[in-house]
Amino acid sequence: MRDFFRFMFSPIIAILDFLTKYFKTIVFLTIMYFIVFDANDSTMNNMQTANLQKIELSGPIMDSTKVLEQVNQAKEDNNIKGVLFVVNSPGGAVAPSVEIAYAIKELKELKPVVAYASGVMASGSYYASIWANKIIANPGSMVGSIGVIFQGANVEELMQKIGVKTQTVKIGKYKEAGTPTRAWENFEKAELEKVIDDTYDMFITDVSSARGLKKANHKEFADAHIFTARQAKAVKLVDEVATLSFAQDELIKISKVSTPIWKKQDKFDKFIDKVINQAVTNFSIRFMDGLKAY
């Protein structure tokens, strides 16, 4: 019987043994694959210089660094005649959303930008897109949720159960506003509401200016309403309801490019970005509290 099981599982054992012995070699060859094949792609790209670039914004917005790098590259590259800004994000932190929005605004002054809602373009990610020359939404996408939220947990009862007490030394009446260690006092809530109100006012002011809407009518297009693509078009948050190919064609048209050649991202960088973005997304969903344009 022992020989029978050894015979049955010997192929699996052999494979595991091979992976154990040659793991580093496999990793090395994988990296070399990305380098060599990307080098071939780069050679082909050099023969035909790219004139259009796609920039993606996906997942919760917790940091703007990567998107800003790509926007700046597009600004500085005179060969790039237009940018397709593809968005699939529920929003996120206010500051990076605003950073991206104004970077897109500056880019638009130099070359056309078409924003495309591939899945979700909500709150902070909609903010990031408002200054594009055109906003096009996938027919099945969700758009809007123009609002601001500040939230945090109250772990006071949990701390009491496990015997943990906080010690605080502070100067300033509002220094503990938003603390998770107890229920918020009314004056603390009022202070946080002032922050929320001013941030929301900034949001709807910029949306109104960018989209040619009347700020006084913000209850119609903002107020955290969630719209389908068609509903978003009806309230003028988007210009067209169409597919990605239409958005690409629209960019080609307004960029006045006769032979469109799209810039390709380095394969290894794309792989690393995907891993990092997933890690950031998982972390932010589980642990990040505070002020968000969600």
UniProtKB/TrEMBL annotation:
Alphabetical UniProt keywords: Hydrolase, Membrane, Protease, Serine protease, Transmembrane, Transmembrane helix
Regions crossing the membrane: 12-36
Protein name in UniProt: Signal peptide peptidase SppA
EC annotation from Swiss-Prot or TrEMBL: 3.4.21.-
Cross-referenced InterPro entries: ClpP/crotonase-like_dom_sf (IPR029045), Pept_S49_SppA (IPR004635), Peptidase_S49 (IPR002142), S49_SppA_C (IPR047272)
Pfam families the record matches: Peptidase_S49 (PF01343)
Lineage summary: Bacteria, Pseudomonadati, Campylobacterota, Epsilonproteobacteria, Campylobacterales
Gene3D superfamilies: 2-enoyl-CoA Hydratase, Chain A, domain 1
Residue span, Peptidase S49 domain: 106-256
Any Gene Ontology biological process: proteolysis
Top-level EC class: hydrolase
Similarity field: Belongs to the peptidase S49 family.
MF (Gene Ontology): serine-type peptidase activity
Record keyword Nucleus present: no
